[in-house]
Amino acid sequence: MATIKAFNGIRYAGKNITKEICPPYDVISSEEKSKLKKASKHNMVQLELSDASKTRNKYAQANFLFKQWLSDGNLIRDEKPALYFYEQVFKDHGKKMTRRGFFTALKLENPHGGAVKAHEKTLAKPKADRLSLLKAVKANLSPIFLLFNDDKKKIVSICKNIAKIKPSATATDKEGTFHKLWVISDEKIIADVTKTLAAKKTFIADGHHRYETAWNYMQYMKSKDKNFSDKKEYGYVLAYLCPMEDPGISIWPTHRVIEAPSHIEENIEKFFNVLPQSAFNKMQNSKIQPVMIFKDGKYRTLTVKNPALLKKAMPDRCSAYRNLGVSILHSILIPEVPADRYVYVKSEKEAVLLAKKTKKIAILVPATPVEAIKEIALNNETMPQKSTYFFPKLASGIIIHSV
């Protein structure tokens, strides 16, 4: 079961940290990075995506800046161990929503087993990059995002009550999301939350690469620390935990753009019913999800002709995995195409515009339901990359965990 603890967080000294926070490192373009650096010389992007100096490589430079910011008081370390409650107020396709959870130190477990369940495959290159940064800075600069069952809504209630008091820090990002942070060192609240989570399994929503990197760092420390113990801070990772029952959970799909494979029309004719574009939105909540293809200026909604095809194409997968549009795409419509061949796009409109511009095809998929993520993770299965997009992303720079 999940083991969490309060920790002495490192955070920005200011109350309004709008100019200091940044998005997760893997969604920051070079243009946005420049804008963030101009916003503040202490913006977290300076650590997450540091640039080499004349005398230091980019990882050593990140460490240099981190220590400097601590020394000059731009970053402060809390004296008391705390849990850090976090709220994001945002608009999802015009609807105002609020998502609440908390930051904690989560005990690391083998990514391929244990109480922390993953659902997506990872790539070696991003993990190597993040491990080099972690070795240099010795801190989790950004969190992993996990979900857990809170069927009695105990944590939902605690989060709601804490949200009534004045926050310790606030920020507004470029997408208009309003971030609030509360530093809670109350021993009773910490004990209640810790006890509740001790009976729970957790599911990684976002941050699979960071979780595996933290695990790899702990293995690295086994060879470096003569007094190694997984109870030390490197045995934990910075985690944001959100109840599955929170009303603010929003999962967006991630669409694909790719050069049309030569056999795609043959596969469509053989395995799929072809329906009008309008059927796609109507059928998104179906047990077996549809996919939609934009090719040669036309939209087609595709549904699997025979459900038995799903088991044949994905024999070792649970039904929750097989029924997803993204799984049908990668296992039946366009099987055996490497993940790096696709361009991944958040909105349907952007995907179609890119397909037109590059003379490729766009494949649109429905969002993955949170219940499917849970079932797939409990079966120790991993989904194709970029199967989920939790909106909004967690900001980097809200809280830091030293290891």
Oligomer: single chain
Contiguous runs where pLDDT drops below 50 for at least 5 residues: none
Q: Supply the helix-strand structural class.
A: alpha+beta
Overall average residue pLDDT: 93
Question: How many domains comprise the coordinates?
Answer: 2
Shape: globular
Percentage of residues in helical conformation: 25-40%
* Amount of beta strand: 15-25%
The total of beta strands comes to 21
Largest sheet: 9 strands, mixed
What is the distance, rounded to the nearest whole angstrom, between the alpha carbons of the first and last residues?
Answer: 22 Å
Query: Over the alpha carbons, how many angstroms does the gyration radius reach?
Result: 22 Å
Number of helices: 14
List keywords for this structure.
403 residues, globular, 24% strand, 21 strands, 14 helices
Question: Would you write up a description of this structure?
Answer:
The radius of gyration is 22 Å and the shape is globular. The longest helix is centred in the middle third of the chain and has 17 residues, at 208-224. It has helices spanning 30-39, 45-48, 58-71, 124-137, 154-162, 187-197, 208-224, 264-271, 278-282, 308-313, 319-322, 325-333, 348-358, 370-378, and strands at 4-5, 10-12, 75-77, 83-92, 95-107, 116-117, 139-140, 144-148, 169-172, 178-184, 202-206, 236-243, 251-252, 255-258, 272-275, 291-295, 298-304, 343-345, 361-364, 389-390, 401-402. The strands form five sheets. Strands 1, 4, 5, 6, 8, 9, 10, 11 and 12 form a nine-stranded mixed beta sheet that branches. Helices cover 33% and strands 24% of the residues. β16 and β17 form a beta hairpin. α3 packs parallel to α4 (124-137) and α4 packs across α7. The protein is of the alpha+beta class and 403 residues long. It has 14 helices and 21 strands. The model has no long low-confidence stretch (mean pLDDT 93). The chain starts with a strand and ends with a strand. It folds into two domains: 4-250 and 391-402, no CATH class; 254-366, no CATH class.
